[in-house]
Design goal:
about 325 residues; alpha/beta; 8-stranded mixed sheet; 4-stranded antiparallel sheet; about 25% strand; binds iron/sulfur cluster
């Protein structure tokens, strides 16, 4: 594994085994994240973004499981590690922040004590005083006003946004090497959102760490991500440097996402209306051809029967679409 390559995901396939059958949520995803980099994973609801995050953490909820694939983190195969080793890595080096995380907090313990306990969980020699100070400092870092006083509050005494920031603070306490943030700032005030995302960026620069930002908000991708991968139907359909993706997108689905943003000026609800026609295919029975076929304004006959592969079409730019079958990254 190249020295600066922190995470490599290869041919990841994750399914949910329901009474109706196998729901193919993630269909052969390949991703790489390097140190110092923020990768944005973007797409509409149900595209499989969160399942990718859970798969990396080996926390896919029942009735799901990783069917096949490799997830390599710093030369370690995460899917082959025993639970104890994995738990140690999860707490210290990999951090996952999920949306609406309030229910991760213990309602009977003050938020300051919860942060302090989380700090000592991986630093058993830390004094109670040091843990308390770290808790207050982290609350300040994620934008909690008057953090020393609020450390004594119970979760129900905080707004949803503040509770979310406490959970974000918990994930950042051990300065993770790889932060996976799944709609982590959704619902936060724009100013606070910017503050939290800047905290992510600072952490990444200071620790030479990396982040996977999972979002439907292309504004976040544009401002905070070095590269972006677009997901549709459990697949990556386009991946490129962020600037390239926004200026010169290739895949028709990326065009759809970006045109929705341009028309509606980053209004989230409008974006959802414009892009959430839901999958036009059944994840229980993926079609043989392109998954985007029914919604694609540029479809051709071949698209109905031949499934396109993700392939390089320019340096640092991959796309899954028959329109670019003749393009080559070497040209
Ligand atoms: Fe559209 Fe065909 Fe490209 Fe799929 S492969 S996105 S249907 S042009």
């Amino acid at each position: 594994m190249a020295e600066d390559l922190l995470l490599a995901v290869r041919d990841l396939r994750t399914s949910y085994f329901t009474y109706e059958g196998e729901v193919h949520a993630v269909n052969g995803v390949d991703l790489e994240i390097r140190r110092g980099e923020v990768l944005g994973l973007v797409g509409e609801s149900g595209a499989g973004k969160s399942t990718v995050a859970w798969s990396i953490m080996n926390l896919v909820p029942h009735p799901g499981r990783v069917v096949t694939g490799r997830i390599t983190y710093r030369d370690q195969e995460l899917l082959r590690l025993d639970e104890e080793t994995l738990r140690e890595i999860r707490g210290k080096e990999l951090a996952l922040i999920v949306p609406n995380a309030r229910n991760q907090l213990n309602p009977l313990v003050t938020v300051g004590a919860q942060l302090a306990n989380a700090y000592r969980a991986h630093r058993p020699r830390a004094s109670a005083r040091e843990a308390r100070e770290q808790a207050v400092a982290m609350m300040a870092a994620v934008g909690i006003p008057d953090p020393r006083r609020r450390a004594s509050a119970y979760p129900h005494e905080l707004s949803g946004g503040m509770a979310q920031r406490i959970v974000i603070g918990m994930a950042l306490l051990h300065s993770p090497t790889l932060l996976i943030a799944d709609e982590a700032t959704f619902g936060l005030d724009v100013t606070i959102q910017a503050q939290v995302l800047e905290t992510f960026r600072r952490l990444i620069a200071e620790r030479h760490a990396a982040a996977l930002l999972i979002t439907r908000d292309l504004g976040i991708v544009a401002h905070y991500c070095d590269r972006a991968a677009v997901m549709y139907g459990g697949e990556i359909v386009e991946q490129a440097d962020t600037a390239r993706l926004f200026v010169d997108p290739l895949h028709p689905y990326t065009h759809l996402l970006l045109s929705a943003v341009r028309y509606y000026d980053l209004d989230r609800s409008e974006l959802d209306v414009a892009t959430t026609a839901a999958h036009s295919f059944d994840l229980l029975r993926p079609p043989p051809g392109c998954f985007f076929y029914d919604r694609c304004p540029k479809r051709m006959d071949i698209c109905r029967t031949d499934h396109p592969q993700l392939r390089p079409v320019r340096p640092n730019h991959q796309v899954r679409c028959h329109l670019y079958a003749d393009w080559s990254a070497d040209a």
